[in-house]
Amino acid sequence: MSHISTEKENLKDYTPKSKDYWAKLPEFEGPLDILLHFVKEDELNIYDIPISKITKDFLGYVNYMQSLDIELAGEFLLMATELMKIKARMLIPADSEETEGEEEDPRINLVRKLLEYKRFKEASASMNTLLEEARKRFTRGYFGSDYVFADSENDMERFDMKNLTIFNLIKGYREVILSIRSEVVHPIQLLSTTPEEQRDYIIRLLFERTKVNFYEIFAELIEDKMKIICTFLAVLQLALEGFLIIDVNQDDRSDFSISKAIPIQN
């Protein structure tokens, strides 16, 4: 007797007095998931499924869920109907005259569906494993000897960028792009720069000055959209790495400036 059938027997004489109760049930993602569970639990041959047993187990699960007043999706009832049809076809004696050739097994479509679902389920499990491994990894940030962390509350206040949102950055970027005159012809050109080159450009700029207005950074790049994009990406990367902070103008949140987040020693 399967696990579900055993639980159903235990619940046979039990009638809940109230619907306000909790029941902890196995989590299945659909009828195929349940059938695959039965195949694995009872160590059945997926290519030669005992249709009578698996139909009984599946109907036992459906009745069990209904006994708990749990509404089942239509796909569960559809699968129950399909299983009973397969069982009925297998019980009908084959006509010797009509079955001189090889007759298709009534279970073949069900087996195909289960095998396909099994492949997707295993692939999904592999992807979840990789995702969990990725979640355990974190970027270290800057820990080189050239960087010094804040050692006072005043310094920490300078690092606070809680007023800065991604929408401020996008709005500022949009304002820069809109300030560029659109050309009718856009010739294809090789990249004039890279985010890495513009990253070095911003670092040199902040070596020379303590604070730089966001629009001022792009003043010399106004005719080169690719340089603007690379520079904007470099600003975001340096902010992510903790090299600089972005100060938002409280009067105009689309206007902001950048400054060194930590002192740099030459």
Cα gyration radius (Å):
33 Å
Strand order of the largest sheet: 1-3-2
The main β sheet shows up as: 3 strands, antiparallel
Helix-residue proportion: 40-55%
Oligomer: single chain
Regions with little confidence, pLDDT below 50 for 5+ residues: 1-25, 142-147
Total domain modules: 2
What does this structure look like?
This protein has ten helices and three strands. It is mainly alpha-helical and 266 residues long. The chain has a three-stranded antiparallel β-sheet. The N and C termini lie far apart (76 Å).
Task: State the gist of this model.
It is built from 10 helices and 3 strands, in the order ααααααααβααββ. The chain is mostly helical.
Q: What labels describe this entry?
A:
10 helices, 3-stranded antiparallel sheet, 2 domains, 266 residues, mainly alpha, Arc Repressor Mutant, subunit A
Secondary structure blueprint with pairings:
Layout: H1 3-11, H2 31-41, H3 51-67, H4 74-91, H5 108-135, H6 153-159, H7 166-178, H8 195-208, E1 211-213, H9 214-217, H10 225-241, E2 244-248, E3 256-260
Antiparallel strand pairs: 1-3, 2-3
Helix pairs in contact: 1-3, 2-5, 3-4, 8-10
